[in-house]
Inverse folding.
């Protein structure tokens, strides 16, 4: 196959659509991350509302992990359902439906009764069920908005633009932290009957619903599907399913590699984002207010790391950037997590600096991911490949809390977090080594059953 020549569109309307597509993808993924991290921050101090006063600290940790896991397990279902629709019907329509969907689930969670009203079993079951359904819509959102924006992006800046979208994964928690801190000012948290536990935690969920509606309406009214997708849609064979195409030939190999990359990153992500918060709260004097203040700081350096590594990958190559980020994570994150968990570091400022370091390392990994994975799939299966790989890759890491409990029988519980990070980085590095370099590829040159065709300058990168 010879590479197709690509005519770059620089008309004002195209550039306007590009900006809108990138903005909507950034905002949509920001709401995605807002919905994910709201459990490990806003809901964490209020878990007693659902579990009652008799739960132990370990029980609380497991329930928090189950709440996150329920969301993450729902993601592959959403990836398969909405990835198909995004590839076959419309990226814009799939994105709009999914953003409205997880916004509605956020509203319903904010209305849930607690253990005192319907019992511990009923309260926990409803919470987990709604988080699972929310996960389906969250997994669906990821299939549509990011591929759409990257199809508008120029090849030479795709790493940077992908990282710009992905950095919303840090902006979402930042918005959560702002809302969390504000709510604590007028709804203090000091036990089961405190204002925060009884009603204050609901406010961030309501705000999440409102923001989701705004983003969905913008996407629906202001963004068009890319010409690349429209051309592929006109040529597609309706009898061929995107999911089946993912499991055939060289596309299957790309899917498996993307799945391995993402699974490795999610091991690191769960430890940094969820376990990190739990470890911080175990330190003397580090309560809900201190956690909220820390979470106001950590996302912004993390977002900068996303953009820096995405930009760098446009110059040094995707694989080389992953190798660098992987080694940095291997050296830094386990040490920081153990220091936080074992109480070797004292004081809010010092603990926050360690937390910042872990978020910077995590951002380095995520910043390279969107461009590299999307550059390996044909337009006809790009949403399915990206969304299903992302969604299914979260399943095994989603049960991190159970792995930590099991490993805790043979080593210190705190050290289990560092071990999971090591496992994740090793998986990531192996997956990186098995894949091609894709920097500089033209997306419309990729066929579903063929290798990506690279420009000469990228084949040796």
């Amino acid at each position: 196959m010879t590479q197709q020549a690509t005519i770059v569109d620089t008309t004002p309307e195209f550039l306007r659509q590009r900006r809108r597509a990138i903005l909507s993808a950034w905002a949509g993924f920001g709401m995605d991350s807002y919905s994910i991290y709201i459990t490990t921050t806003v809901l964490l101090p209020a878990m007693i509302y659902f579990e009652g006063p008799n739960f132990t600290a370990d029980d609380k940790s497991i329930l928090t992990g189950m709440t996150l896991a329920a969301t993450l397990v729902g993601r592959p279902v959403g990836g398969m359902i909405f990835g198909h629709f995004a590839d076959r019907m419309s990226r814009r329509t799939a994105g709009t439906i999914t953003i409205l969907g997880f916004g509605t689930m956020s509203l319903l969670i904010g209305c849930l009764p607690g253990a005192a009203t319907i019992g511990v079993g009923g309260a926990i079951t409803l919470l987990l069920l709604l988080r699972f359904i929310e996960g389906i819509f969250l997994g669906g959102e990821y299939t549509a908005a990011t591929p759409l924006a990257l199809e508008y992006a120029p090849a030479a800046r795709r790493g940077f633009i992908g990282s710009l979208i992905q950095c919303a994964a840090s902006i979402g928690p930042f918005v959560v932290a702002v809302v969390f801190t504000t709510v604590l000012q007028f709804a203090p948290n000091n036990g089961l009957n405190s204002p925060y536990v009884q009603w204050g935690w609901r406010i961030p969920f309501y705000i999440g619903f409102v923001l989701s509606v705004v983003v969905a309406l913008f996407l629906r009214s202001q963004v068009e599907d890319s010409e690349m997708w429209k051309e592929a849609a006109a040529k597609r064979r309706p009898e061929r399913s995107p999911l089946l195409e993912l499991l055939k030939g060289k596309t299957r190999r790309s899917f498996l590699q993307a799945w391995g990359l993402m699974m490795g990153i999610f091991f690191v992500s769960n430890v940094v984002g969820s376990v990190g918060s739990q470890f911080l709260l175990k330190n003397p004097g580090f309560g809900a207010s201190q956690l909220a203040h820390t979470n106001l700081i950590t996302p912004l350096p993390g977002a900068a790391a996303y953009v820096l590594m995405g930009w760098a990958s446009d110059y040094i190559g995707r694989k080389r950037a992953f190798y660098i980020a992987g080694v940095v994570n291997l050296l830094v994150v386990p040490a920081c997590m153990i220091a936080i968990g074992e109480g070797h570091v004292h004081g809010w400022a010092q603990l926050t600096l360690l937390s910042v370091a872990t978020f910077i390392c995590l951002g380095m990994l995520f910043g390279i991911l969107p461009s590299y994975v999307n550059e390996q799939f044909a337009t006809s299966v790009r949403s399915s490949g990206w969304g299903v790989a992302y969604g299914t890759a979260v399943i095994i890491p989603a049960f991190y809390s159970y792995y930590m409990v099991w490993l805790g029988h043979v080593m210190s519980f705190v050290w289990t977090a560092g071990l999971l990070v090591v496992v994740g980085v090793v998986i990531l590095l192996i997956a990186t080594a098995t894949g091609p370099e894709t920097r500089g590829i033209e997306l419309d040159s990729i066929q579903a059953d063929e290798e990506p065709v690279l420009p000469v300058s990228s084949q040796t990168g």
Observations:
- Residues 115-152 form the longest helix (38 residues).
- The chain has one domain: 12-459.
